[in-house]
Specification:
- The complex is a heterodimer.
- Chain A is 77% helix and 0% strand.
- Chain A has ten helices and no strands.
- Chain B is built from eleven helices and two strands, in the order ββααααααααααα.
- Chain B has a two-stranded antiparallel sheet with strand order 1-2.
- In chain B, helix 10 runs antiparallel to helix 11.
- Chain B is flat, with a radius of gyration of 27 Å.
- Classes of the chains: A mainly alpha, B mainly alpha.
- Chains A and B meet through helix 1, helix 2, helix 3, helix 5 and helix 6 of A and helix 1, helix 3, helix 4, helix 5 and helix 6 of B.
């Protein structure tokens, strides 16, 4: 607490600053100001283009107020069914692959070489955006939901294995020791000591990933990997803002439904 | 614990027969759902392309090597743009998310009946639309360029920051707020001296975490024309310049690793 005297001699309390060291504090302030100056200076804005675009923006807002579900309904339905099936299959396959990798990436269960291999698989899967992976898969297997399925499965591995491995590493070691003391094999150890402890959280994580996979499935369509994103991209390219608004409303509704139901299921499981 | 008798011998089982059956049916339903989804999804798949994938992958791999390192000279400007999109977008999001968070938190909102649901709706709709989709919309509205990227990142981040922040506000210790109120402080003073110091560490952590995510997301915004290194990626992909794509991937990877390191350091220093 700093308490400098004021002119009248009375002591006045001041709030302590967030960063204690004054040099660091003012250095950071000055650095931030210089950075902002440079960064904002390098943003080139074509205000004429923005002004022209306002009209389109208004049309888009109008589209939201009067979404057009009917004229592209069959396309929307197709996109949604692709997105949903992609989400389900990729989540299931992703879980099946990521459970062994997650167990392999837990330091307290496996020898060092296995640990390192599994951790590097996780690192590779986590370091690239889904969209970039989707570009590569589209180049390999062609346009369509199969590329999206591969992308989402691959992305699921990095997410689930990492969190599962961290969960396994932070389990209560006494239970594992008790099972080990009975002379259990490694598989029995995993089955009776690890699995009951991590299962509730694993189910929660799987549901959460199902959620994420649906959201991502709406995006990777933009690069040709199928799903509702492709439909949305087409609608915007055709300047059909009312259809685009309808698609966005459908996406938001499904995401909200998935979020509420998954939080409900998680409460029920735990 | 269900126990059955067989030849007067007690046999312990983990679950009652009824529960067992229910679990079994559940698994069967899951498998059926999976098979059904797989059938629907692959009904238009051209399998010849899929079986060709390993050869394609090898082909692309061989084209990507060796990387055209000289191309990196043309990547510094896009990388700077990418970082600016993420940083300015995060700042934009903070400006908009803080009021929304205070309106959404149960203990600071002026009205739980009218204003809180609106704030929650803003949070949900911002969270459910990915930044790439925001960018797609904004590029058609305000034109291609960095500004569209910044606004897209900003709009996407509002929901994230506001959600975590309002949860932090709801978890504050009320006694400190009460103490400040007891001194006769105004509503604004209660907020500044009673609530803000309590949520400041959480706020800083959330912001840095989101900045880290935004760096990742802003690397691909250029694919739809919203500036940054994605523009170069799109151009290289369109011209099938795979050696350049490799360099771009490496640049993206380096940026992401660096930003993750920075955010881990900052969060470690704060918490």
């Amino acid at each position: 607490m700093s308490a400098p005297a004021t002119a009248s001699g009375a002591r006045r309390w001041r709030r302590p600053p967030l960063i204690g060291n004054p040099f660091l504090r003012y250095g950071l302030y000055i650095g931030a100001v210089i950075y902002l100056f440079l960064a904002i200076g390098s943003v080139e804005v074509n205000w004429l283009r923005v002004y022209e675009g306002l009209d389109r923006g208004l049309r888009f807002v109008g589209g939201f107020l009067q979404p057009d579900f009917t004229s592209r309904w069959s396309d929307i339905l197709r996109g949604i069914s692709e997105s949903l099936t992609m989400t389900v299959t990729s989540t299931v396959i992703g879980i099946l692959i990521s459970v062994p990798i997650g167990i392999g990436a837990a330091r307290n269960l496996v020898p060092v070489p296995v640990y390192l291999i599994c951790r590097s698989i996780i690192a590779i899967s986590r370091s690239f955006q889904e969209v970039i992976i989707a570009i590569l898969f589209v180049a390999m297997v062609g346009f369509g939901p199969l590329a999206g399925f591969l992308t989402l499965s691959f992305a699921t591995i990095g997410f689930l294995s990492k969190l599962l491995a961290e969960d396994i590493e932070s389990i209560n070691p006494e239970q594992a020791e008790a099972i080990r003391a009975t002379g259990a094999s490694w598989l029995q150890l995993v089955n009776y000591a690890i699995q009951p402890q991590v299962m509730p959280r694993l189910i929660g994580l799987c549901l959460y990933r199902l959620d994420i996979n649906f959201r991502e499935s709406a995006v990777i369509g933009i690069v040709g990997a199928g799903g509702i994103g492709a439909t949305l991209n087409t609608a915007i390219d055709r300047y059909e803002y009312d259809s685009a608004a309808a698609i966005l409303i459908v996406i938001i509704a499904i995401v909200m439904a998935a979020e509420y139901s998954s939080s409900y299921v998680r409460k029920w499981v735990q | 614990m269900p126990v059955t008798y067989r030849d007067d011998v007690k046999i312990w089982q983990r679950r009652a027969p009824r529960t067992k059956l229910a679990i079994w049916v559940g698994w069967l339903a899951l498998v059926a759902l999976f098979v059904f989804c797989w059938e629907v999804m692959t009904k238009d798949t051209i399998w010849a392309f899929v079986w060709d994938a390993p050869r394609q992958a090898a082909d692309i791999g061989s084209r990507m090597m060796p990387p055209r390192w000289s191309y990196i000279d043309r990547l510094w400007q896009p990388l700077w743009d990418t970082i600016n999109i993420a940083t300015l977008g995060t700042l934009l999001a903070i400006v908009m998310a803080v009021p929304v968070a205070f309106l959404a938190a149960r203990n600071t909102t002026p009205s739980t009946v009218f204003i809180r649901p609106v704030a929650l709706l803003i949070i949900v709709s911002s969270r459910s639309i990915n930044s790439l989709i925001w960018a797609l919309l904004l590029v058609t509205v305000i034109g291609p360029g960095i500004l569209a990227g910044i606004v897209a990142i900003g709009l996407r981040s509002i929901g994230f920051i506001a959600k975590l922040l309002y949860e932090a506000i709801e978890e504050i210790e009320e006694s400190q707020v009460e103490a400040i109120t007891a001194t006769g402080a105004t509503r604004g003073q209660v907020m500044i001296y009673g609530i803000v110091p309590q949520i400041m560490p959480a706020f800083a952590g959330i912001t840095v975490f989101r900045w880290d995510i935004n760096i990742r997301e802003s690397t691909v915004l250029g694919l739809v024309g919203a500036g940054g290194i994605g523009l170069q990626l799109q151009a290289s992909l369109n011209t099938l310049a795979w050696p350049q794509v490799t360099v771009i991937f490496i640049a993206i990877l380096a940026t992401v690793v660096l930003s993750e390191w920075v955010s881990a350091k900052v969060r470690h220093a704060i918490i």
